[in-house]
Amino acid sequence: PRLVTVAACQLGAVHLADSRQDVLKRMFSLLDQASEQGVKLAVFPELALTTFFPRYLLKEEELDKYFDVEDPSKGGIEQSPNVKPLFERAKSLGIDVYVGYAERSLQSDGSHIDYNSSVYYSAHENKIVGKYRKVHLPGSVEPKTEPGAYQQLEKRYFRPGDLGFPAFRAPGLVEGALKKNSQSDGIQDSTGKGDPIIGMLICNDRRWAEAWRVYGLQGMEILCCGYNTTAFQTTSSGHAVDMSPEDAEDLVMQHHKLSCQGNSYMNACFSINVAKTGAEDGNPLVGGTIIVHPLGHIIKEAKTKEDELVVATIDLADCVRLKSTVFAFEKHRRPEHYHSIIER
Ligand code: CDT
C-alpha cells in the first residue's frame, strides 16, 4: 500500500468585509485540525483568500486588493505577505498545501497579466513544486445588461492559463516511495511506486474531460481542484432558470458530482474537490466538497456549508488496478481517431 491521509479544507462564505487576516486565521484553524488527524496534504478552494469577486463589476483600482502580485524577478506567490504565513504554518505542521488565488503576474515592461491560479506547496521541499493557471474561464468579458442579471466576469478579469496541464510529483508525501525525478515533463509511470503524481484544476476545469485526460496521460494519481460554484443555474441573459431554488441546487450538485466522479474513474485517479460555499453577501455557492476514489465512488463528503475538514486516508495502490486494465491507455487508446478534438 501507498497510504496518505489527505484533507479537503472546505471554506464557508468569505464576505466582502472579511479581511485577509480573518480568512488566514480560518485556514490556520483547518490546518491545525488537519495536523491533529495526521493529514499530509490539505486542499483549499479556488480564490480561497477572498470573496468570489468575479460576481461584481469592479473598477481597476477596486480590483487590486483581490490579487497577489508576483514579480518573477523576485520569486513567486510564496513571497506574498498575504500568503507566506500559510506556507509557514504548513511547513511547521509538515503538510503539503494546494491553494487557489488571484495571480497578478508582473511583466518586465511594467505591465501585468492576471490569472486565476493555484499552487502546490511541498512541506518536504519547503517550496512550491507545482503551479497551474485556470484554462477554462467561465462567464463573459462584458457584464450582462439586463436588470438583476447575475454576473460572472472571470473572462474580464483573468487571462486563460498558459501553462497547460503539467503533472508533477509531491516529494516525500508518501512514506517509502521511491525517489523519482520530481519535475519531469509529461511523467508517466506505470510502476505506481514513486512519489505521488499530482494534477491541479480550478473549478470550471473539472467539467472538461480534455483537462483530466491530459493529466491522466501523465499518470496522475491525485487530482486537486478547488471551486466556487453558484448554487443556481442562469440563462444566457444571466437570470436564474425557472425552477425552484432546491431543484436548481440539486441539479448543480448533480453536475458537479458527475464531473468529479466520472473523470476520476476514467483517469483512474483520486480527486479532492473542495468548495468555497455558503452565501457570500447573500450570493449562494454550492457545497459538495468530496474526495473521490478511482473507482468513481465518493469516499468522504462534507456535511455543512461552513468551514469543514473532510479527511480520508487513501491508498494510491488503488489507482494501479484500473491503470493496468480498463484504462491502460498505452494499450487501448486510439489517438489516430482523436485528431478532430484538437482541430476545433
Ligand atoms: N468559478 C467557476 O469556475 N464557476 C463555474 C460556474 C459556471 S456556471 C456552471 C463552475 O463551473 O462551477
TrEMBL record:
<dbReference type="InterPro" id="IPR036526">
    <property type="entry name" value="C-N_Hydrolase_sf"/>
</dbReference>
<feature type="domain" description="CN hydrolase">
    <location>
        <begin position="4"/>
        <end position="316"/>
    </location>
</feature>
<dbReference type="InterPro" id="IPR050345">
    <property type="entry name" value="Aliph_Amidase/BUP"/>
</dbReference>
<dbReference type="GO" id="GO:0016811">
    <property type="term" value="F:hydrolase activity, acting on carbon-nitrogen (but not peptide) bonds, in linear amides"/>
</dbReference>
<keyword id="KW-0378">Hydrolase</keyword>
<protein>
    <recommendedName>
        <fullName>CN hydrolase domain-containing protein</fullName>
    </recommendedName>
</protein>
<dbReference type="Pfam" id="PF00795">
    <property type="entry name" value="CN_hydrolase"/>
</dbReference>
<dbReference type="InterPro" id="IPR003010">
    <property type="entry name" value="C-N_Hydrolase"/>
</dbReference>
